[in-house]
Amino acid sequence: MNFIKSRIVILLVLVSFSSIASAGIFRTKNGKSATQDTTSFVSPYAEDNDRCFKCHGQPKYEYTNVNLGKQVKALMCSERIVRKDEYYRSNHKSFSCTDCHSSEYETFPHSGELRMEQKLTCLDCHGGDETYAQYHFEAVDSAYQQSTHFKLEEDGFSCWKCHDPHTYKISVRNKNNLRETIAYDNAICLNCHSDFNRYQLLSDKEEINIITKHEWLPNQATHFANVRCIECHTAINNKIPVSHLIKPKVEAVKLCNECHSQNSLLMASLYKFESRAQRRDGFFNGIILNESYVIGANRNEYLNLLSLLIFGGVIGVIIIHIFFRIRKNQKTN
Amino acid sequence: MYLYPKWLRAWHVLNAVLFIILIVTGLSMQYTDKQNYAIVVKFAAAVKWHNAAAVLLTINYIIYVVGNTFTRNGRYYKIERKGLVSELVTQMKYYAWGMFRGEKHPFPVTEERKFNPLQKFSYVLAMYVALPLVIISGLGLLFPEITVDRFFGVSGLIYTDILHITMGFFLSVFMVIHIYTCTLGAKPTSLFWGMISGYHRDEH
Fold this sequence. Notes:
- The complex is a heterodimer of chains A (333) and B (204).
- By secondary structure, chain A is mainly α.
- Helix content of chain A is 42%, strand content 7%.
- With 204 residues, chain B is mainly alpha-helical.
- Chain B contains 6 helices and 2 strands, in the order ααααββαα.
- A two-stranded antiparallel sheet of chain B has the order 1-2.
- The chains are: A mainly alpha (333), B mainly alpha (204).
- Chain A binds chain B through residues 218-219, 222, 255-258, 260-265, 284, 288-293, 295-296, 298-300, 303, 307, 310-311, 314-315, 318, 321, 324-325, 327-328, 332, and chain B through 29-38, 42-44, 47, 95, 99-100, 102, 141, 144, 150, 153-155, 157-158, 161-162, 165-166, 169, 173, 176-177, 180.
């Protein structure tokens, strides 16, 4: 019996330990509680931010309203939900919530007036900043102002519609997995263009069916998995890392040759970072080490030269052979 | 002598036409230009024609293999290792200078020996090595999802493509040499007529 008892005790200890672990709460050496994060990054403001995430990090929230003297349970508006794990993977992960939002949010419940808070734009922080000079935010802004999205600005379009500051991360320079970059960047577009509810917030146009609109495109699925929407739908601007000049749909690239050729359009966009250095040698035109293969663009200079030499040699031998045949015929006659 | 049965002539004509379409469209795709300029065929049309011709060529190739398996035509492609090199050298010497000195053909065409050793060797390489490789690699490009994703850090599609265009190139070179050697009959046109009528006219 003692054996069974001791087994039950061990089991209970294990179950309670695993439930503590799954709750994600551990005590650190200095006694502070720290949330177990899947990412290695630990924000200096983690504790402050956790007060916000307590409500804004989930779809439902609950608090005691001291004025009303009762417990309030409600659903969080989807626009105001910020996923903590995504936030701590984003480019803005080292910020405190109140760096960008009013410090008055620290009082609880929040005052209604705070809803009218002026939202920052990218340039409010990044404009004229030497640290970010290489990203040319001003050029990005002026390209955006010529883009077809800009005409919807008054209806609420802004940088944030595509680049949510709570989750946005620069992925194009992630050379490890080009497909991941493509999927991430395309998801930004599809977030509205394949979700009718979101699309309707800014447009009164009819529902767009991406699949039928692109029926003309051969091997549609392969194209969607291997290139970004912006490859065909933006005007290339070499000054900025990623083109922001979204063109009206009638101006989208429709000629296969634009990408399926040497000095392809893709070299100026998707393969820009990988190909620059490698292209100098002309070896495989810079994209041999990439994951993607594009008919007409993947040309090997050495094989081209070798094939010309072999073909020229064959034709040369044939011409010599013909010459001797003619001479023999003349002699015979 | 009657050497080329009807099925073989039909296969040969279709194979030749498809080969030409595939070479022209293949070159058009490979060397397409950004300024909407294309070598003979524009890119989109080239892709369509290349794919259609490739599917037909694959079916035609199966007919060829089946035909050679079940008819006596297959025996002409059997290479004997014994004496192979010396026979190849003899035939090459004949093409290089023997024929200009009025020497007799070292391996005259008979019903038992349709091809000379050099012909046989190059036909076997083209039809049983290069063509299967071009078909298999072509299928890999037509259905990228079946191709090896990555190999030694490089996309499997790039290896597949290099194999495809290299084999395609060698088959194109083969075709040029093949057409030229077909002018070496009794008269420059007699071997071409032979492939139409089915009858071979002896050179001597």
